[in-house]
Write a structure and sequence with these properties.
alpha/beta, 6-stranded mixed sheet, 6 helices, about 15% helix, binds adenosine monophosphate, binds magnesium ion
Length: about 400
C-alpha cells in the first residue's frame, strides 16, 4: 500500500500535471477576475499631452518672478481652456489662460498657478500672488505611462484598475484564459434533491450544491449533473456526461467500502494518476487523477470533508486552469484564543473564525464541535488551521491560517 502523503505533498503532486486552459478574446468590461493570457503594452503616451493638475491660470513661470502676497503680478487673460478644449493660440509674455483640471496646457505656458493664489481683476486681467516654478501643477505628456511600456505581464489578474488601464489605451477586447467549466455530481443511494421526498434513511444531497458554489467562488463555471446511485453503471453514465467539461468533481463513494464504486469505474474508463490517502482529518480518502487529459477529483462524501478537500486541493487546480500564478490559499498568522485539538498521526484541519484585535493583529477562534459530518460547526468560518499530528494547540499559540474569506472582504 502506498504511504499516506501530507497535504503539501499531495498538492504538489496534483499541481504538477495542471496547465492553464487556452484563452479567449473578451470585451474588456466582461473580463473582471480573468487572467491575462498575453502581456499588455501601453499603446500611447498618457496623458497624451501636458495638462493641468489644478483649476487656476496657465502662465509663463518667468513672468511671475518675485510675485508675492504684497507684490502680485498682473497678467492679461487671453482665453479659457477646460478639459477637452484646446488653447486657441500660444501664450505670449504677460499673458495667462484661465485653465481647469485636465485641460491641455497651451503652448508657451509652462506652469499653472492654483486658483486660490489668484484674484480675477478689471478688464480681463488676473492678479497672481505667488511665483511658480516651471512645471508646477503641470502633468507632462507620458507622466502616467510611455507608449510601448509593458504595463501588465501575462498572468495579471484583471481588476477595476486593470480595466481602467486597458480602456484608457483604447483597448476594447482582451485575451484572457478561459474560465474552467466543471461538472459536479454526487453519489449515494441515500441522496435526494432538496425538493425530493425525505423518507426514512434519505438525506438531501448538500455536497452537489456546496461544491458547485465552491467552484463558482473559485472563479469557475459549475454545472450540477445531479446524483448517481451507488451503482457502477449509474456512476459510469455520470462520468460520461462529464466528458465535455474541463474538470470533474464527484463526491461520495471513494472509500474502500462495498458501495464505493467511483474509483473502480474511473479506472475502468482509463483514469491515470494516483488514488491516495492524504494524512489529514477530515478528508482521508481523496481520489485524484486525469481522465482523457482532464483532472478528476473524487472527494469524500462527508460534507465537511468534501469542502476541506475541495479548498485545499481542487481550488488550486481551478485557479491554475484559469491561468492564476498564485493558486494556493493565502495564509496569515493569527493568535489562537481557543484550543485547536490534534488528530492522531494526521494533520487536523480545523475551521476557524478570524477577527482583528485592537492592535490590528489577527485572532483565530477555532470553532467548537468539529467533525466531518458537522456542517453546522463550520458556519461563519473564515479559514482553516492545519494542526500538526499529535500536537494540540492552545490559546496564545500562533497559527498559520489558510484564508478562505476574510471578514469584510467578501
Ligand atoms: P461516503 O463517502 O459515500 O461513504 O459518504 C460518507 C457520508 O457522507 C455518509 O454519511 C453519506 O451519507 C454522506 N454523504 C455522501 N454524499 C453526500 C452528499 N452529496 N450530501 C450530503 N451528504 C453526503
Ligand atoms: Mg456513499
Amino acid at each position: 500500500m502506498a504511504p499516506m502523503r501530507t497535504i503539501d505533498e499531495a498538492l504538489d503532486r496534483i499541481l504538477e500535471g495542471i496547465r492553464p486552459l487556452g484563452s479567449e478574446r473578451l470585451p474588456v468590461q466582461t473580463a473582471l477576475g480573468r487572467v491575462l493570457a498575453e502581456p499588455f503594452h501601453a499603446r500611447f503616451d498618457l496623458p497624451p499631452c501636458a495638462n493641468s493638475a489644478m483649476d487656476g491660470y496657465a502662465v509663463r513661470a518667468a513672468d511671475l518672478a518675485g510675485a508675492s502676497e504684497d507684490a502680485p503680478v498682473r497678467l492679461s487673460v487671453v482665453g479659457t481652456v477646460a478639459a477637452g478644449a484646446l488653447g486657441e493660440r500660444p501664450l505670449a509674455e504677460g499673458e495667462a489662460y484661465r485653465i481647469f483640471t485636465g485641460a491641455p496646457v497651451p503652448p508657451g505656458a509652462d506652469a499653472v498657478v492654483m486658483q486660490e493664489r489668484t484674484r480675477a481683476g478689471e478688464g480681463g486681467t488676473v492678479a497672481l500672488f505667488s511665483a511658480a516654478a516651471p512645471g508646477e501643477n503641470v502633468r507632462p505628456r507620458g507622466d502616467d505611462v510611455r507608449a510601448g511600456t509593458e504595463l501588465m505581464a501575462a498572468g495579471t489578474v484583471i481588476g477595476p484598475a486593470e480595466i481602467a488601464a486597458l480602456v484608457s489605451h483604447a483597448r476594447t477586447q482582451v485575451q484572457v484564459h478561459r474560465r474552467p467549466r466543471v461538472a459536479v455530481f454526487s453519489t449515494g443511494d441515500e441522496l435526494v434533491p432538496p425538493d425530493g421526498e425525505l423518507s426514512e434513511g434519505r438525506i438531501v444531497d448538500s455536497n452537489g450544491y456546496a461544491l458547485a458554489a465552491a467552484c463558482e467562488a473559485a472563479g469557475a463555471e459549475a454545472t450540477l449533473l445531479g446524483r448517481a446511485k451507488d451503482d457502477p453503471e449509474a456512476i459510469g453514465a455520470m462520468i460520461d456526461a462529464a466528458s465535455p467539461f474541463d474538470m470533474l468533481v464527484a463526491s461520495g463513494g471513494v472509500s474502500v467500502g462495498d458501495y464505493d464504486h467511483v474509483r473502480p469505474v474511473l479506472e475502468e474508463k482509463g483514469l491515470e494518476g494516483g488514488f491516495w490517502k492524504v494524512a489529514m482529518k477530515p478528508g482521508k480518502p481523496v481520489l485524484f487523477g486525469h481522465l482523457r487529459g482532464r483532472p478528476v477529483f473524487g472527494l469524500p462524501g462527508n460534507p465537511v470533508s468534501a469542502l476541506v478537500t475541495f479548498n485545499l486541493f481542487a481550488r488550486p487546480v481551478l485557479r491554475r486552469l484559469a491561468g492564476h500564478e498564485d493558486v494556493r490559499p493565502p495564509t496569515l498568522r493569527a493568535i489562537l484564543d481557543a484550543p485547536a485539538p490534534a488528530a492522531k498521526g494526521r494533520t487536523h484541519v480545523v475551521w476557524t473564525r478570524l477577527t482583528q484585535g485592537a492592535d490590528g493583529g489577527w485572532i483565530a477562534t477555532p470553532l467548537a464541535r468539529q467533525g466531518s459530518h458537522r456542517i453546522a460547526a463550520t458556519l461563519g468560518a473564515h479559514g482553516l488551521i492545519a494542526v500538526a499530528p499529535d500536537t494540540p494547540m492552545a490559546p496564545g499559540d500562533e497559527a498559520a491560517v489558510w484564508v478562505l474569506a476574510l471578514p469584510g472582504a467578501s
